Amino acid sequence: MPATPASLLETPGPPAGSADIRLVVTDMDGTLLDDAKRIPDGLWPMLSELRRRGVLFSPASGRQYATLARQFAEVAEGMVFIAENGTYVVRDGVELSSDVLDRSVAADIARTVRRLVADGVDVGAVVCGKRSAYVERTDEAFLAEVRKYYVEHRIVEDVTAVEDDVIKVALFDFGPAERTTAPALAAFTATHQVVVSGEHWVDVMNRTANKGAALRGLQRELGITPAQTMVFGDYLNDLEMLDAAEWSFAMSNAHPEVVRRARHLAPSNNENGVLRTIAGVIGIPLQAGAPA
Question: Measured between alpha carbons, how far is 237 from 194 in angstroms, rounded to an integer?
């Protein structure tokens, strides 16, 4: 089990700046991004320095691959994107791995959402395919939330009939997802993963799919060890990923279970915690800047 979380300075280990890190993996929302969903300016010069030192940087998110690729478009060459909570891993436009969900299961989940809506729950399903995300709801409030994470999305009459490899079904609940939508999906937990990935989001995936499984596969392919891996997360969909790295950091704003699971604590997402911690562990000066 991981050690009791502590700040980096309180944790015995190599002196700051001396760790042999070859891979840095970070969640996006609530972790790298601040509460206004902004990427810190200092990330861009840091990515250049990480690349110069041969350290791979990998965003790992519940977000869609197309969304992540657009966010990092200027620096995406050679970067590995762990998208859709680990169900879809892509480098330079080439799929490295995926974990496809049976379409009949995706259809059952969509029908469950329809029943919830009929019972008065303000929730909508996003059926996540490799090519696009698919939704039935057309109201602007819901679509505004979808657009934040799925730049490639289509409104269809019936999400159970889409022709795409489905890798995940995400549910957006305008209320507290952990207390409302997640319990309604209990029938799927015996055979699939039902993961609360944010205050309003629940993801349903194959039991074999998570960010940690994707990360371990990437480590094997690249010959990188957990001791050479640094990971940052804040929510329950980050737990398995934290287990795959010896340098595992929960943000100080993280869910309590994430704090318990991680080996270390980082400053919050609003305090530039990811960059400050990378700078301290690897020894890279912080600076502001934009993509070259």
Answer: 10
Task: Evaluate whether 116 touches 122 at the Cβ level (below 8 Å).
Answer: no
Which among 126, 200, 129, 214 has a CA at the least distance from the CA of 170?
A: 126
Asked if residue 173 lies in contact with residue 125, where contact means CB atoms within 8 angstroms, the answer is no
pLDDT digits (tens, 9 = 90+) for 2-42: 444 555 434 434 445 668 999 999 999 999 999 999 999 99
Residue 292: the pLDDT is 38
Q: How far are the Cα atoms of 3, 9, 187, 213, 240 from residue 86, in angstroms, in the given order?
A: 25, 31, 22, 7, 10
Angle at CA of residue 228, ends 74 and 44, nearest 5° = 20
| Cα atoms in the 13 Å half-sphere on the side-chain side of 148 | 15
pTM for this structure?
Answer: 0.85
- Compute the distance between CA of residue 261 and CA of residue 248 in angstroms, rounded to an integer: 9
Distant-in-sequence, close-in-space partners of 247: CB < 8 Å, separation ≥ 6: 19, 21, 227, 229, 230, 231, 263, 264, 281
What 8-state DSSP symbol labels residue 186? G
Which residue positions in the chain have pLDDT lower than 70?
1-18, 288-292
